[in-house]
Known about the structure:
Blueprint: H1 2-36, E1 51-57, H2 65-75, E2 78-84, H3 89-100, E3 106-110, H4 114-119, H5 130-133, H6 138-143, E4 145-146, E5 149-150, E6 153-158, E7 161-165, H7 176-185, H8 201-210, E8 214-219, E9 222-229, H9 233-248, H10 259-268, E10 274-277, H11 282-288, E11 292-295, E12 309-317, H12 324-334, H13 337-347, H14 354-358, H15 360-363, H16 366-377, E13 379-380, H17 391-402, H18 408-427
Parallel strand pairs: 1-2, 1-3, 12-13
Antiparallel strand pairs: 3-12, 4-5, 6-12, 7-10, 7-11, 8-9
Helix pairs in contact: 8-9, 17-18
Amino acid sequence: MKKWLYVLFITFLAVGLLAACAPDREEESSSEGSSSEGSSSEDGMPEKPEKLVIWEDTDKGVGLDPAIESFEEEYGIEVEYEEMDMASTIRERLRLDGPAGTGPDVLTLPHDQIGQLAIEGLLAPLNVDESVTGIYTDASVQAQTYDGQLYGLPKATETPVFIYNKEHMEEAPETFEELFEFSQEFGGDGQYGFLGVWDDFYHANAVISGFGGYVFNNEDGTLNPQDIGLNNEGAIEGAAYIQKWYDEIFPNGIIGENGGSAKDGLFQDGDAASIQDGPWAFQALNDIGMDYGVAPLPELPNGDYPQTFIGVKGWHVSAQSDHQEWATELVKWIANEENAKVRYEETNEIPPVTALIEDPVIADNERASAVAIQSERGVPMPNIPEMSEVWGPMADALQLIATGESTPEDALNEAVETINSQIELNHSGN
Length: 430
């Protein structure tokens, strides 16, 4: 009898132990099942789409072809692209086609459009680590950042540089003081050692920022439109230096609406030895057969370099894409160092990839190297919507300064007052 009770007791104990363990095993099994649900790859990526679509700038697809071919080979995902005007068409079509579900997965944009499109919910923030962003110049990554979030990877950069006619100038001067002295001695009436359209804020910012001014203060990657530095001590000093050039060197004809074309005509006719302009000017000089040199802008009298506005074209992911994770992988692929180099060789658009600046493909090309170096010294054009309120008041102020109708301090104080008022009026809801 005792033996039978003992056996019965052992049996009950075993059943109890099995019951106690069962929920753990069931929970574990359920957990394992849920972790793999909806994922077809070992690294947790979602199921691969059949196709990804890129919107690329006009006539630039040739630089994409090699990257697309290698991406398709690596991942087995078809990629197609459509070319269209980057400055306006892509933005406007994205607003219509994106929400309609007929837009792209990946698109290219100039960085100054990022802020507004991010506010509209049309761009997806990129979730990439520092090993991805670390290959690019700091300024180019900053240009792709809005409100502290990364919205793209850099594709190409451009900025104004120093261009000189080798018939008049054997090499670029190292400082603006040298250039000023050269300009005082160069040629005769109607001839100029250097010309810059410095009543245009896009070009004048190089001097104003070089002396310590700034448009919006950058606070840990976020531009603060309530903190404007266009009338601080450095900005006023820079504007005074601009006024000096207009008083003593620049002709009246390069002030105002036609200033840019007047500057170009004087330089192309050989009546100006050097100018400040961007890489977009190279083709016209090539067409007329000028023997010209290109260099970063010379050092300012305060010992710092001009901080030109840099423009950065980038690759972005549409917020309406059904395949954002794979679109991000595609952006990382086409923007990596290898594919950026190939793209440069095909399009001559300079990638802000740090290693490539030292690569002979750019370092041995005087024009590309000058743009790359000046881009490192520059500051990204602000990409927040409030920037639209800056251009007009600053143009008015600079023209008053250039013509001597106002002191730099008075003109800049009035400009900043107007900018603040317009921001309050038009962007108080942002």
